[in-house]
Design brief:
Elements (H helix, E strand, L loop, with lengths): L1 E8 L5 H9 L11 E8 L6 E8 L2 H8 L2 H10 L5 H4 L4 E6 L4
Antiparallel strand pairs: 1-3, 1-4, 2-3
Length: about 100
């Protein structure tokens, strides 16, 4: 299994806005071959820190998604958030190979 975490930090008063955006997400990733799960995580001590957690069958499945037109479409939409505080957010992305369960 392969895991990708993308963490952003937003002003705390904007956390609920970002959560709502993800609750209403396009779900295009859900259709990708090898996709297993999506979770949006909120740091319990820093409410403005949110992490998108994606699980994939393999690194290759993730790479196929990351090179797809659907991936480009989703990330193009993110550049057009109507809220200026959210528009310029740059996530910190970490990728992991699951080596034991």
């Amino acid at each position: 299994m392969f895991v990708v975490d993308s963490t952003v930090v937003v002003p705390e008063h904007k956390a609920d806005d970002l959560i709502q955006i993800y609750r209403n997400r396009s779900r295009l990733v859900d259709e990708a071959e090898g996709f297993l799960s999506f979770q949006l995580l909120q740091n319990d001590r820093k409410p403005g820190e949110l992490t998108v957690h994606l699980e994939w069958e393999s690194k290759q499945a993730y790479l196929n998604w990351a090179r797809s037109e659907q991936f480009k479409k989703i990330h193009e939409l993110e550049k057009h958030y109507p809220d200026e505080d959210l528009k310029g957010i740059v996530p910190i992305v970490k990728k992991y190979e699951v080596v034991a369960t």
